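User: Here's a structure from my thesis project, written as structure tokens. My advisor, Dr. K., wants to see whether a designed sequence matches the one we expressed. Can you design one independently, without my sequence as a hint?
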């Protein structure tokens, strides 16, 4: 077996898998290898400057393979380092994210020694004899990372001509025009990349950022909807799409994506809170109440009162006064003397022209908070109505 001099870094937290890869490399004649248990350790090793090729798992603690890949691609010293990603066969989302982050090659677990041999040969051949496209694109990336945008644009334009089927040069031209503040040219180049590769997630997300800034929620929703077709199991995309639908007034569509986001959040407290906030923003108060009771509510009464009071305020804004009163009354069952809730209920009753009932709730406030200015102002308005 021919011996190869490339220094390969294996990044894998599973010891058995790491040993398997080491054995495969030895069998293939690659004796110069080292190992790291996660992306953070691998990055420390890469910075020593003697790594030629990275062979990395996707899912690892502290820093995963995708985070490591992005760090390499965004660093001037290592941006064109060959990177082979390894992940589970059912991880389509991982695959798509890796492609967008410019992984060179991809291996599905369990790794096949024949495929690994072919990929390593391809990597080494590209290093020794890069294509015209590889040289132009690499030079474009170098100038881009050095913020030499005119030169970067020139090389990316030539790269797009050298390989007409590649979306990457147009994507990077879009990024440069964004940096230069030319939003129209940025949008045009992102769209060109999508003509070539309609599932190019990075361009879809870049366009989504542009539409978010413009508050163009219809186009934002369309972009994110295309992303969900490619990556259906991504919480951030579903919650972003739900927000866009809420802003554009498509509440039923928002409801569906919030349901998906809720399932993806599982028991993640921060993500569940995002879903809860979106339900309230959308006026889907029953769904918010149900989610809170199932996943968020605990023994903290003040937290529950704060939540129910929010529902009451939203229902009042929607002019669903009976539902608002229902939420306020639930609050007062836990804390009959709660200043804010009593005031909000009194304000609601004032709107309903039930002045005597509103007055009674304000009197409850004054027993403990005689100097509450908003309540004083509301009481003056009630007394004026009662005198009429």
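Assistant: Designed independently from the structure alone:
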């Amino acid at each position: 077996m021919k011996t190869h001099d490339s220094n390969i870094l294996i990044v894998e937290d599973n010891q058995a898998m790491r040993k398997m890869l080491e054995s495969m490399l030895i069998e293939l004649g690659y004796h110069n290898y080292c190992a790291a248990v996660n992306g953070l350790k691998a990055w420390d090793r890469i910075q020593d400057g003697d790594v030629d090729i990275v062979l990395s798992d996707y899912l690892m603690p502290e820093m995963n393979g995708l985070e490591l890949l992005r760090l390499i691609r965004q660093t001037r010293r290592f941006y064109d380092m060959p990177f082979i990603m390894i992940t589970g066969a059912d991880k389509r989302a991982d695959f798509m994210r890796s492609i967008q982050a410019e992984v060179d090659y991809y291996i599905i677990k369990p790794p096949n020694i024949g495929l690994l041999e072919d990929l390593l040969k391809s990597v080494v051949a590209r290093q020794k004899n890069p294509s015209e496209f590889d040289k132009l694109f690499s030079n474009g990336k170098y100038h881009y990372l050095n913020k030499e945008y005119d030169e970067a644009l020139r090389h990316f334009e030539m790269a797009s001509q050298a390989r007409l089927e590649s979306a990457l040069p147009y994507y990077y031209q879009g990024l440069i025009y964004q940096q230069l503040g030319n939003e129209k040219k940025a949008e045009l180049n992102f769209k060109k990349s999508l003509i070539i590769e309609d599932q190019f997630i990075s361009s879809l997300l870049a366009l989504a950022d542009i539409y978010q800034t413009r508050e163009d929620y219809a186009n934002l929703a369309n972009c994110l909807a295309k992303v969900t077709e490619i990556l259906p199991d991504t919480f951030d995309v579903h919650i972003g799409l739900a927000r866009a639908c809420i802003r554009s007034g498509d509440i039923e569509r928002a409801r569906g994506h919030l349901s998906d986001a809720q399932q993806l959040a599982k028991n993640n407290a921060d993500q569940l809170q995002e879903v809860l906030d979106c339900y309230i923003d959308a006026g889907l108060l029953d769904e918010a109440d149900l989610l809170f009771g199932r996943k968020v509510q605990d023994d903290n009464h003040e937290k529950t009162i704060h939540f129910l009071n929010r529902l009451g305020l939203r229902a009042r804004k929607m002019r669903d006064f009976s539902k608002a009163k229902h939420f306020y009354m639930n609050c007062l069952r836990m804390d009959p003397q709660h200043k804010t809730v009593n005031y909000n209920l009194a304000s609601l009753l004032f709107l309903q022209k039930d002045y005597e009932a509103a007055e009674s709730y304000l009197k409850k406030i004054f027993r403990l908070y005689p100097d509450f200015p908003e309540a004083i102002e509301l009481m003056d308005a009630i007394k004026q109505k009662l005198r009429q």
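When you compare it with your expressed construct, this may help: The two ends are 103 Å apart (CA to CA).
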